[in-house]
Design brief:
Blueprint lengths: L16 E3 L6 E3 L3 E6 L5 E4 L7 E6 L2 H9 L2 H6 L5 H11 L31
Antiparallel strand pairs: 1-2, 3-4, 3-5
Length: 125
């Protein structure tokens, strides 16, 4: 059987993955936010993801940013110490992030605790 020209299987485009330095989840690069240490030593959030310098990736969840800052993971990954100015810039950026959604509380038998689950119309428990 002869191959028909132009009917080659399409290659899947490479999807770069990165790991969040706080929660350690691996996600597509575009779903994470990049923090960069520039060659002159300043640290800031790189919205474009293309600034030159050593970079680290953090999920767009407030809890990840809090953990990364509190546990000095940003400093560790970028091999630097954050100046007060850099820390203030990161805290200012963090204030723009939405709060994490609260998970539904469960008891020992993994059933939702009364008053924490959202009601679903038409469903009975």
């Amino acid at each position: 059987m002869a191959k028909t020209p132009g009917k080659q299987p399409q290659k899947q485009k490479h999807l770069p993955l990165r790991t969040c330095i706080a929660c350690r989840e691996t996600k597509p690069k575009r779903e994470l936010l990049r923090v960069v240490r520039t060659p002159d030593g300043h640290v800031f959030v790189d919205a474009t993801g293309k600034k030159s310098g050593r970079g680290a990736y953090i999920s767009a969840r407030l809890s990840c940013w809090q953990k990364a800052l509190k546990e000095h993971r940003i400093e560790h990954e970028l091999e630097t110490t954050l100046s007060e100015e850099d820390r203030a810039g990161i805290l200012e950026f963090m204030s723009t992030l939405p709060a994490d959604e609260q998970p539904v509380a469960t008891n020992a038998s993994n059933k939702p605790v009364a008053g924490t689950a959202k009601a679903h119309p038409g469903k009975t428990s």
